[in-house]
Write a structure and sequence with these properties.
By secondary structure, this protein is mainly alpha-helical. Among the domains are: about 50 residues; about 30 residues, no CATH class. Helix content is about 55%, strand content about 0%.
Length: about 120
């Protein structure tokens, strides 16, 4: 299959990219209604877009702006250790927890000890 030329699909040109045209209009008029954005995109860039596409672009931009990580969660714990990601790590953690419970006598004592160590 032949490679497409870069000039035919320029992602940085709002006249060729509907989503970018919507984002451009939304940066200038952030509180505009979807119907107003549709008319401005048609007038300035010549794209026929639906209101649903405007809502989708707004939602995507809000998702990126809220700062929460997306996708697969590989978060670090409070002390910087990576989260348990494999079954073997879970089994090891359960064995350590069982030893802690046996040494402390009950769940309340083990919980108090963990809170004291963590805090």
């Amino acid at each position: 299959m032949a490679k497409k030329s870069a000039s035919s699909s320029d992602r940085s040109d709002p006249k060729k990219n509907k989503s970018l045209a919507i984002r451009t209009v939304l940066t200038r008029v952030p509180n505009a209604k979807a119907s107003e954005v549709v008319t401005l995109v048609k007038k300035e860039f010549g794209h026929d877009v639906k209101q649903n596409m405007v809502y989708m672009v707004k939602t995507k931009s809000n998702m990126a702006a809220d700062g929460r990580p997306r996708g697969r969660r590989k978060s670090a714990g409070r002390n910087g250790n990576p989260a348990l990601s494999s079954a073997a790590q879970w089994v090891g953690a359960i064995k350590i927890a069982r030893q802690l419970l046996k040494a402390m006598g009950n769940v309340a004592n083990a919980t108090a000890l963990l809170k004291a160590v963590d805090g």
